[in-house]
Specification:
By secondary structure, the protein is of the alpha+beta class. It folds into 2 domains: about 120 residues, CBS-domain (Roll), CATH 3.10.580.10; about 80 residues, ACT domain (Alpha-Beta Plaits, 2-Layer Sandwich), CATH 3.30.70. Helix content is about 35%, strand content about 25%. The longest helix has 20 residues. It is elongated, with a radius of gyration of 25 Å.
Length: about 220
């Protein structure tokens, strides 16, 4: 999915001659901390509420704040994950989408981005999650996939991210089954550190622990 396909265009656009009062009112109405400013269809930047809130004369037009405009935008042809990079960098809940001529084609809301990131990560899929830690030099997708498939399972989603400890990677797996005790044991046998997992075995273990605690309490 491209950024343009993700654009939901729910936010209004500001013009240079709009007043501070208008900008703040729209930000409050749409519950956003930024709004895009355009001139003749060209994207000029985002203006934030923190830049305007202390303005005593609310009739002041926002063109006097052009030096404060944030040049945060994504190209319409980029993959949608680029919007997440802009969101994390500028902490804006509206991400403008522009073409190569810097013409504003639409905007992406943080809600639309979050929903798509959830779909992308497989959060709605049936199955278990396993989080592994391993040295960078040992990382091999083929080996991980072989371990999963040896138990008749399939990887639905795989994400690799840096670990706080240098030279380590954190690997998050979404697997299409919940009975993963054998898979976890195999990873440990291959000297992977399993830092987290969720599945039916874990759920059943929690029930057993809670049941035993209750019985001990009743005995008292």
């Amino acid at each position: 999915m491209t950024t343009l396909q993700l654009a939901d265009n729910i936010y209004p656009l500001l013009k240079l001659k709009d007043t501070v009062d208008t900008a703040l009112r729209l930000m409050n109405e749409y519950k956003t901390n930024f709004l895009p400013v355009v001139s003749e269809g060209k994207f000029l930047g985002l203006i934030g509420d923190e830049d305007l809130i202390d303005e005593k004369n609310k009739k002041t037009t926002i063109d006097v704040y052009q030096t404060n405009f944030v040049p945060a935008a994504v190209n319409a042809e980029f993959y949608f994950l680029k919007a997440a990079t802009v969101y994390n960098l500028y902490h804006s809940n509206v991400i403008p989408v522009v073409n190569e001529n810097n013409e504003l084609l639409g905007t992406i809301s943080s809600k639309a981005l979050t929903i798509e990131l959830g779909n992308f990560s497989g959060s709605s899929e049936f199955g278990a999650v396993v989080v592994l830690e391993i040295e960078r030099t040992r990382f091999a997708i083929s080996e991980i996939n072989s371990i999963i498939e040896s138990d008749g399972a399939t990887i639905l989603h795989l994400n690799v991210s840096p670990h706080p400890v240098p030279n380590l990677l954190e690997i998050t797996l979404q697997i299409n089954k919940k009975e993963i005790a054998t898979i976890v044991a195999t990873f440990e046998r291959y000297q992977y550190t399993v830092s987290f997992y969720s599945g039916e075995e874990l759920f059943e273990d929690e029930i057993n622990v809670n049941y035993n605690n209750l019985m001990n309490y009743l005995d008292i």
